Amino acid sequence: MTLLSYQVFQTVVGQGSFQKAAEILNLTPSAVSHAIASMEQELGFSLFTRNKAGVALTNYGEHLLPYVNAVLNSDESLQQAIAGLNGLKMGNVKVGCFSSVCTNWMTDIIHSFHQRYPDINIELYQGTYADVSYWIKNGIVDIGFLSLSSAGDLPIEPLYRDPLLCVVPKGYRKREDTPYMTPDEMKDEVFVSQMETTDADIAIFMKQNGLGNVRMDYHVVDDLSTIALVAAGLGICIMPELVMNDIPYAVDRYPMMPEAYRVIGISALNPNFLAPAVKMLYQHVIEKYKIIEEA
Q1: What does residue 92 show for φ and ψ, rounded to 5 degrees?
Q2: Where are the alpha helices (DSSP H) in the chain?
Q3: What's the alpha-carbon Rg for the chain, to the nearest Å?
Q4: Alpha carbon distance 47, 141 (integer Å)
Q5: 205 by DSSP, 3-state: which?
Q6: Of 17, 64, 146, 281, which sits 20 to 30 A from 121 (CA to CA)?
Q7: d(Cα 114, Cα 119) in Å, to the nearest integer?
Q8: Dist CA 192 CA 254 (whole Å)
Q9: Per the database record, which ranges form the HTH lysR-type domain (predicted)?
Q10: Of 113-117, 141-145, 172-176, 288-292, where does mean pLDDT reach its minimum?
Q11: pLDDT digits (tens, 9 = 90+) for 101-139
């Protein structure tokens, strides 16, 4: 017998009717009848007498009722205990992120979250897109920030659309007198590039816009080194706008035409089954940073 069959039994007793019990439990009358018949078959005796006025407990049913109530009360106590444990708002959450989210968002997220949930600890792991994806898939972190294009088969909740910019040395003279940069203007330039695992969105943009074979003499792994080389006049690069908030070097930047973005999101291996503390942080991030409307 199951808790549902006990709930059906208790509700039929309380309503004195299979039909009314079905309405309360949002079941069909036949489902209620089947549940009671299954109980009676398993127990080996009848629980109800049936007549035109409705149903009434048999002597056996009357003796069984207190025990059924005790089971259901115990289940209710268990559910309340679980809710109480969740309500303690304690725990530890491991978060993976890439550089620009770490420097632009994470301090604010940690401070604001700790104001609401001071007993939940956040552990932070910084790496590339590939690192964060690996950490999520292997349970090293509970949740992580990724770009939409780097998430692969991981579920991801889009949060923020971050424009891609063309970054050039200070005083760079554009070929065209426009406030934006086109792929045609960039195709003959030397690029400072990063690994595709670090900048998947930039690599995709370049391939889609005929920049897949540009000259690349400098291959680095972090944003600051990339901009330092550009500032020194050694080439140009494409960089997300969020990255440029942290750059101390004097460079010029242009929006691109066609417009290009990376979409930043929050990812978890199974967003529907998160530990309570993880779920609280996951929701906190969405409330604080989600600006992309659902399609």
Answers
A1: -135, 130
A2: 3-15, 18-25, 29-43, 59-87, 99-101, 107-116, 129-137, 183-186, 200-208, 223-231, 241-244, 276-289
A3: 30
A4: 52
A5: helix
A6: 146
A7: 7
A8: 16
A9: 1-58
A10: 288-292
A11: 999 999 999 999 999 989 888 999 999 898 999 999 888
- Cα 55–chain centre separation: 50
Other C-beta atoms closer than 10 Å to the C-beta of 48 total 19
Distance CA 30, CA 178 (A): 74
DSSP at 103? I
CATH class of 3-87: mainly alpha
Distance CA 188, CA 179 (A): 19
pTM: 0.67
Q: What are the structural domain ranges in the chain? A: 3-87, 89-295
Residue 253's DSSP bridge partners are: 167
- DSSP β-ladder status, 190-194 and 54-57: unpaired
Reading the block at residue 71, the tokens are 């089971």
Lookup result for tokens 């942080």: 281
Buried b (16+ CB within 10 A) or exposed e, 97-132: bbbbbbbbbbeebeeebeeebeebebeeebbbbbbb
pLDDT of residue 249: 92
Task: Return phi, psi of residue 57, to 5°.
Answer: -70, 140
